[in-house]
Prior knowledge:
The chain is mostly helical and 89 residues long. 47% of the residues lie in helices and 4% in strands.
Amino acid sequence: MPYFVPKSASVPLTTGQLKEVFKKNDADGDGRLTKQELKKAFEQLGSRNPNWRVHRAFRHADNNKDGSISLEELDELVKYVVNLGYCIS
């Protein structure tokens, strides 16, 4: 199954697949997701408004407010995305 399935698709992603989508969008490999990298991930996930999703995701997951989502904060990001319906239970 491909990792980049639009939200409207009939085959949702698992939490592990969601994590992989986000990790693959860490373009510079520093273990942190910038807003631009996260926007690309939401575009691949089929978000209709990726800029809004990035804004909301940072409010939910960027616990230390450093302007990026670290690997330690990735679980919070995945919880947010699961609540949006991108994942199977």
